[in-house]
């Protein structure tokens, strides 16, 4: 534990914190490579190249490609949760839910590799023997539950459009969001994810967007 | 051209029709393997194994893995168009459009590998150097256009729900359909594609489903 070090003091890193920095660099490179190439086509060699290591040294930090991918997803989930919380603004106000979704969608589109990391890897994870199948099954169950929760709060506050249930709002928003992100990955110049999502949320809620 | 052969007559196939049958067998096996594994993890060895050939002989029919995948997609597009036309029933009645979509969705869910062939390969095609990137860019442009066309006909016939435009109906239906199919691929026991699509079409149109 290092505390209260003035900003101007050069920090001398022990082997532990140097190793930590290395891990972070590797995770950042792997996020980019897996997010763009997917798991199967993403290579340890390319990841190692970005951080200026050889692949064998990289395996000192993450023993297998699977372990590295899982670490990337775990790390991203932490960041995503933080971004989602920050983007959600005042969580006691259900009227802010649609705008929070739009901020998250904008953030996803701005950070390279994020949409690929979830959309591309989710699709790829449906293939036999893929290391993150269970992760994505669990993730979708969790996200479906979260979406149902926030739209239920909107329903309780009479903020859904006439005839729209929380169940439909949740399933349609999650489905449409993923589908549009997939179209965006394939043809980014033709598709505006945020605009599509805004129009959908305008249709299913009574919140002005 | 062989015509009017009684059903009981054994057909003697010349080298050409035998080769044709071989091609069909290979395409069927490749549809299954690419639809379940995607392109990168789908192997020529596995495809050859299903039809009882060695991979080298298979390359006599399709010179590369890329050529074989393209042939699979071209073949499926022919079948899909035929199924879509048949499912569409009377194309002069725009009120039948939502039920036609549901029949296609049901057919997709019933034929193994079809959803994977489009959803999985579409996602995978967004990765660098994937052989079907251009195919999917063009395919999505064509499908978006088709969807806009059929929903425009529904709009003209006053069959869309109040406030729903043909543009929104097309984009939301295509996006949601793809997104739900992706969730289904990952966790088929939790997701019913047809039910999701039926609920969506019930929301955006005034047709009883």
From TrEMBL, chains A, B:
This is AcrR family transcriptional regulator. SUPFAM superfamilies: Homeodomain-like (SSF46689), Tetracyclin repressor-like, C-terminal domain (SSF48498). Residues 43-62 bind DNA. One of its GO terms (molecular function) is DNA binding. Residues 1-21 are annotated as: Disordered. Residues 20-80 form the HTH tetR-type domain. Keywords: DNA-binding, Repressor, Transcription, Transcription regulation. Coiled coil: none annotated. Pfam families: TetR_C_6, TetR_N. The lineage of its organism: Bacteria, Bacillati, Actinomycetota, Actinomycetes, Micrococcales.
């Amino acid at each position: 534990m290092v505390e209260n070090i003035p900003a101007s003091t050069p920090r001398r890193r022990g082997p532990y914190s140097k190793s930590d920095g290395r891990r972070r660099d590797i995770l950042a490179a792997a996020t980019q490579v897996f997010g763009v190439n997917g798991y199967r086509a993403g290579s340890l060699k390319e990841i190692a190249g970005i951080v200026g290591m050889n692949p064998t040294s990289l395996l000192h930090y993450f023993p297998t490609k699977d372990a590295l991918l899982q670490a990337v997803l775990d790390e991203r989930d932490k960041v995503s949760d933080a971004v989602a919380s920050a983007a959600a603004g005042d969580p006691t106000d259900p009227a802010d839910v649609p705008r929070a979704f739009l901020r998250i969608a904008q953030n996803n589109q701005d950070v390279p590799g994020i949409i690929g990391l979830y959309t591309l890897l989710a699709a790829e994870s449906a293939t036999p023997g893929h290391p993150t199948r269970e992760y994505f099954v669990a993730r979708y169950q969790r996200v479906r539950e979260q979406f149902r929760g926030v739209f239920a709060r909107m329903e309780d506050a009479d903020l859904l459009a006439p005839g729209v249930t929380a169940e439909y709002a949740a399933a349609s928003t999650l489905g449409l969001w993923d589908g549009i992100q997939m179209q965006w990955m394939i043809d980014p110049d033709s598709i505006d994810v945020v605009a599509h999502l805004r129009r959908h949320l305008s249709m299913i809620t009574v919140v002005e967007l």
